[in-house]
Amino acid sequence: MSSKIIAGVEIGTSKVVVLIGEIVHGKTLNIVGMGTTPSGGVKKGEIIDFNAASDCTHTAIMEAEESAGVSVEGVYLAQTGRHLETFFSDAEVTVKSSKNIVHYSDIRRLLAEAKRKQLPEDRAIIHHIQNGFYLDEELVESPEHLEGHKLEVRYWNIHGSIKRMSDSIHIINGFGLRVEDLIVSSLASGKMVTTEEERGNGVLVVDIGSGTTDYVLYKNGHVVYTGVLAVGGDHITNDLSIGLRTNSNIAELLKIKNGKASLPPKAQNDRVMLVGDLAIGDRSIARSGVCQIINARVDELFRLICSDVDLAPIFSSNKWGTVVLTGGASKLKDIEKVAENAFGLPVMLGANPSWVAAEIEGPEYSTVLGLLHFGLSYNNVKEFKERKRGVALMEGVKQLFRI
Amino acid sequence: MTKKKKITKPVRTTWKRIPQKTGRQSVTRESQKVKVRRWGRIIGFGIGTCALVLGLPLGGYYLFHNSSSIVATVQVESPLQVEIQSGRFLPESWIESRLNLEPAPGLMQIDLIGIKANLEKYPEIKSATVERHFPNVLRVSVQERYPIFRMKVSGKNGRYSILLVGEEGHVFENVNCPQHLLRRIPFLGGIVLHPTPFGYRPIKGAKILADLVKTANDLYPDLSRDWVLILADQLIMAQSFTEGYIRVRSRTIEEILFAPKQFDKQLERLNYILDNHAGQTAKSLSRVNLSLLNQPTVEYTRVSAAKGYR
Which residues of A touch B11 (CB under 8 A)? Predict the structure, then answer.
């Protein structure tokens, strides 16, 4: 049985999460191990202390390998941070055939034209996301052998700083592993918390992490917009610690235990203890004060996203179907109410697929699960191509000698 | 002339161009562990492969071409101790010198049968037992041949030497038998000795002669004490041992003839004759012929003419 062991690694601002999956025959994914450690050396999704980040990441990979009892062969690494930038590109060609039938050579010409744009030296493309072909301005899935005059393609491109990406890649290399693919966090989590139907109707997925918020917009089943904001759950904690004049650990506990994103009714005037242990220094504070701070920051976050998505060149009208919230900070109480108010659209809390184990069904694991899903798709395509090339024959011969 | 426009393919800058094998790697405890494990696996695989590649042909060669022999065995046990149990006369040193042991032999390398056979070649030794007692003791028990007769033999240089004869006719030299015991043993005469590489051939009929002497020593020791010479010529020259007779010369009787059977009865008759003769001072016994069994004959001589062995 041909199997490959891959790992999804997310080096986040608050924690490093590693999931190990076994891909069998390029078709089935079994999740066999998990490792998490509190993060270090990472701020707003970017590495600021290489050694500290390496230490945490390697510990998490080691923990995952030990829990799985296998060695990882390749890593799918999540990428986020302010260094990620996007641009829209399109290209069009005239169909050359006398009978106006689109041939493969036309498609190849079109794709080369679409990817022609040069980037600055310190930037590198992470994803070229195809938004579909347009044949005589009509959306088609595959234009080959169709009849038309003008063939058009649209791409959503995500690129990042080579230095920033090198940092995270070399952390994985330090463990003796190779990065098979870099995947933007929003694409990974978006794939996990939405269905194909939702993506077809249009959906905005907002992944609120500790240091960053990643979002992706799907329309007609394609990715049409992505973005990253360097604002996350940590900023809410930070606001609380400043507003309540306490340290960030207490503020974090207060946010989790008593925090609410929505504003309480005016009549309600209940109070909560700051620490809760009734020791010297502990004091009671108004819950409404806590909620006001949280609400202000969350509302600001969603309005920032709203304004950014409105700027998307291809998407001027707010016609997507729903908004899905995911990520660790989406567990904040009543956050969906604030989102509904900000976006003016129905909002759901994202849920990972039902087949995942109970330990990893929380929204904070949607990104790493998505990484493994990308790994499965990549290996599926790879195996198909190798089978076409005859590589599978050699694999078959190898199988004969395996015990 | 127009310049040909050079068409360049745009260079795609993807993250996959970032080199993944650089020296810029943080060495953490976990990565060190992984490196050690990986190298261990590589080295183990290498050693295993080498062992397999070299081991199979070498093993095959060893199996089919093994003509080696043991050149030496290293002993790790304590030094060998030899315990010797002998009879009355043979000294332990005499026996040990005839064991022919190799220097510092191992107990398991000793040839017990060879040593036993070697010892039993010596006529002085009737039988030998050689045993291993672990961890390091070799026990040799020897049963000696005791002399019944002695013989006076002239050597090449004309000097006489004394040889001893055992009960079964084996002839051997005196090793350690004291002289006062030898003096009690009668001489044996009328015998021709046949030399062999290990001494002399055993004397035929010696068992009959020894039977006579032993019976006399047991029943009438006063009689046998005076016997000086036993002559076996008439016994050996007879067609069969039952037809010949034995001549004995004693200090009191010049010649006594014995038939080679019924020694106890013949000795009883001799004793009777001697008892009856006791007190007669005028004449002495010169010849008693007991070989006729029921009809012994006695010859007398006058005392002055008597020729007894003194």
Answer: 118
